[in-house]
């Protein structure tokens, strides 16, 4: 009897977007218009690569970036929720699937001592180059037309479940906790017994509602949350069962 918790990161675990928060390190805490306007839909990772070059060119070092990133607030109730999951790890496997990057997530989780709560983190690989610039790469290649070209969260989830099955691990229920448009693809993959937990007022909740209105609802149950305490209440009820 084990449950799989799948978390998005930006606007789900933390209450901000880690990629836009790093702009606080830029001169005057803003990017030049030319750079800001260079983003093309579906190519966020490439855009962030250019942002990191700009920061590097302006002498922003690793320690300053780390200090800035570890000031991002967690979402309301999230610290309690992650503490609760950490105390009940025999019941829950817990993964992050995020379009952020390994460096940012690692810094933030370690600073708050939550890295042990998560079994695996699936996100874009990042590292500092020999010249001290942060570089980021695509997580993988995929053929999904609905997702940004660097990451299809459904593919990640599918491959993780296959790998777990090979190890003899299957889950009573998958609980998917997210907020964004790129969380819809994995939510569409969930089965009747699973549960999607979209954050109230964010894109994922709106997309799920649109599907229900167009009479092609998702298969899984849907439970909206505004504070992570709502998620914790649900998990407590699962343990009681």
From TrEMBL:
Protein name (record): PHOP2 phosphatase
> Which residues bind substrate per the record?
19, 99
Q: Which residues bind Mg(2+)?
A: 8, 10, 179
One family name in Pfam for this protein = Put_Phosphatase
What is the phylogenetic placement of the source species in the record? Eukaryota, Metazoa, Chordata, Craniata, Vertebrata
Q: Which cofactor does it need?
A: Mg(2+)
Which terms does the record give in the GO molecular function aspect? metal ion binding; phosphatase activity
Family of the protein in this entry: Belongs to the HAD-like hydrolase superfamily. PHOSPHO family.
Catalytic machinery residues = 8 (nucleophile), 10 (proton donor)
- Keywords, ordered alphabetically: Hydrolase, Magnesium, Metal-binding
Q: Is Hydrolase set as a keyword in this record?
A: yes
